[in-house]
């Protein structure tokens, strides 16, 4: 029998999975992983890359990005956004139903989104939305291939808030599909009241933003969402949790046997409210950045293994929509562009400064988000038969992020000027190098759309 010749052999790397790390390599054939081996055995391969001194990780799966197409491609777009993904070691992203216009809340909007996404450089999937008037559209979204649903418990631009009635009815349907609901958890009544009171006092300063959306508002919404999920049996995912107490609420629900998962974002781990004061509206997000002590408490939960997913919540806009808040923080667009910086940020703030295990980094940024969407057999793992989605990282490379390094359509980010240790050297999507040494080298349109598996109820 003739031995199979691999297309590519990555050798002499420090290989990291969510279970372990070791010196060894990975072979690739036909766009999939053909072998994972320790040491440096003799392997027949058409091409070989010596990865001595580099980390070899599964490509990241970013569960939470906003690319704003159709309708707001001038904010980002799938072509530029997927370039930034590749540059950040992200080989799969899942794009949110907003801030596109129209938002992805029915079959027609989903078709427009699918057409816009076809230019992606890396693989992707799409969220559907739950709003106040689309309960009859959820089955069409499921048939159309969305991999999860997103609802806001506070009002968002062009995306209506879901109240308790809508959340419950939506959860019942979505549970029947075998899918899950993600919620932006902030209490509407509390945030509106506090914002109105602060503005009536003449408060427009940067700290007023956090005071208008306190941790108490996040916790009230998390409690309500968990209670509704408990009543309906729905799977629940709480996005961008900004507080340790929020993670604790979710951990307590898990101990009661509930199907609920927790996501946080690198910006809550890298920045605090003093950075909003220092940097200005470019660091405005919702929920807001928290006090320094709260940031460290959140890190404690990450290091304890209580966080399921770390995702960027990449939420770009035009620069004037940020500077609109220079004199009135409430007037600025709330979102941080961070997709490209997730991996270096976590390597720096987590691995380098706080002793985060590399296996845990892989779990939260690759393996667990892949499982969340049902991609765990193909994505987020280094195993024979999985897609050859890989990222090579130089863990010793130190750099200061400059705006010109960014691949976003609008090159601004709260991370510009940050000192990082750990740089993406090469990103491989299904066996094809799409980013190498500072350049995008893979073609637009290489990315494939991933769908939810069909279900009987849908």
3D structure, described in words:
This protein is α/β, with parallel strands linked by helices. Helix content is 32%, strand content 22%. The protein contains 14 helices and 18 strands. It has helices spanning 78-87, 107-117, 138-143, 164-177, 188-200, 206-212, 215-232, 244-255, 266-270, 273-279, 292-303, 319-323, 342-354, 358-372; strands at residues 8-16, 21-29, 32-38, 48-50, 55-58, 60-65, 90-95, 123-126, 128-129, 149-152, 180-184, 235-238, 260-264, 309-310, 390-400, 419-429, 432-436, 439-440. A hairpin with a 2-residue loop joins strand 17 (432-436) and strand 18 (439-440). The longest helix is centred in the middle third of the chain and has 18 residues, at 215-232. It is globular, with a radius of gyration of 21 Å. The relative contact order is 0.17. The model has no long low-confidence stretch (mean pLDDT 96).
Helical region count?
14
Binned strand content = 15-25%
Stretches with pLDDT under 50, minimum 5 residues: none
Q: What shape does the CA trace take?
A: globular
What percent of residues adopt helix (DSSP H or I)?
25-40%
* CA distance, first residue to last residue: 46 Å
Features of the shown structure:
458 residues, alpha/beta, single chain, 14 helices, 22% strand
